[in-house]
Amino acid sequence: MKRIVLFLSLMFMAGFSACIPPSDTSKMVVHAGDVPLVIQPVEMDMGEVMEGKEARTTLILRNTGAFPVHVEKVTSSCGCTTASPETRELPPGTFTPLHVRVDTTAKRGRVKKRITVIDSQGRRTQAWLTLRVKSNPHMGAVRGKGIFSGKCASCHFDPAKGKVAGGSIYKAVCVMCHGKAGKGAYAPSLRGRNAAFMVSVLDKGLERQMPSFSRKKNGPLSREQIASVAKWLSELDE
Ligand code: HEC
Ligand code: HEC
User: Which of 143, 152, 201, 205 is a plausible cystine mate for 212, CB 3.0–4.6 Å?
Assistant: First the structure.
């Protein structure tokens, strides 16, 4: 019995030394279900950030359960966002800072990002970040190309390789901005546009954010792929 008490109090102390106090306890979430990990706060407004600058914040990852939890994986939908906990082992009742960074290259306006934490039993917990990206006059030259190079290419460039059918090209490299079936999301709806207009946008890109997808401009799509996705989109119901 003594041993157990000693063990528990040691864990308690170890937990405390790894933690910093939460900044706002009124926003604390008590989790009723059987997912012990919670991220606090669940929604975080990161404010206004200049395009191209990295936005950073620190959230709290807390084990509200009665047993130790191992953090298996931390993911986000866009590779432009990373979140890293200071420790992956969380004794019951403890918490660790979760450091978040968002690369705002090629973003504009209101952006919402989701972070998912998965524990060793596959249980998931999520939080959302919002930020407003202010346009940066010095980013003109790199805007657009930003999503096709480096670590961004694996999701925004490579998936188009070898795709022929318009719908599959769309799902590979357009859906993340324009939403399911061209209905609009972060970027506007593409319903009711004619194919020639879309071909010209895909060739040249647009002033603001829509990059040129043409291989001639280091984009991911051949002429045939551009024609194919433009045709597919133009044939969707309005
Ligand atoms: C792991 C795949 C992946 C990688 C890598 C990736 N993205 Fe994304 N990106 C997505 C997805 C999916 C979305 C759709 C929005 C979402 O769910 O976050 C997206 C959306 C975007 C958007 C639209 C605005 C927004 O944030 O919703 C921009 C701009 C963008 N990504 C830029 C980038 C840049 C710049 C990089 C490299 C620093 C990058 N992405 C790396 C998958 C990825
Ligand atoms: C990184 C996000 C992003 C991706 C990926 C993207 N777009 Fe766009 N697109 C935009 C934004 C934002 C606009 C609005 C104009 C602007 O800001 O440049 C736009 C505008 C357009 C327009 C002009 C719409 C109009 O009526 O003015 C077309 C057409 C278009 N996109 C087609 C596509 C196609 C097809 C793909 C895939 C091959 C694609 N886009 C991929 C962000 C994106």
Answer: 205
**Nearest in space to 84 (alpha carbons), one of 73, 70, 94:** 73
Please report which helix (H) or strand (E) contains residue 40, including its range: strand 37-40
**If you search the block for the tokens 């109090």, which residue do you land on?**
9
Report pLDDT digits (tens) over 66-105.
999 999 999 998 889 999 999 999 999 999 999 999 998 8
Q: What is the pTM of this model?
A: 0.72
Q: Establish whether residue 214 lines the binding site of ligand 2, counting it when its CB lies within 6 angstroms of any ligand atom.
A: no
Which tens digits make up the pLDDT trace of 132-162?
A: 998 766 555 455 457 888 888 999 999 999 9
Asked if residue 213 has its Cβ within 6 Å of ligand 2, the reply is: yes
Residue nearest to atom 6 of ligand 1 (CA): 79
